[in-house]
Design brief:
Number of strands: 2
Shape: elongated
Number of domains: 1
Oligomer: single chain
Structural class: alpha+beta
Length: 44
Amino acid sequence: MLGYLNITGLDLALLLNFKNARLEWKRVLRPREAGEHDTPDLHA
């Protein structure tokens, strides 16, 4: 998942597991680089 986020440039992914009767999910965040901005780019 982290490789996908790095390639696409996205910061957040949701990993969903439908195997059990109850939905399981996990948020995956891409680690920040030292030079990245803290504010999101709303013009992209």
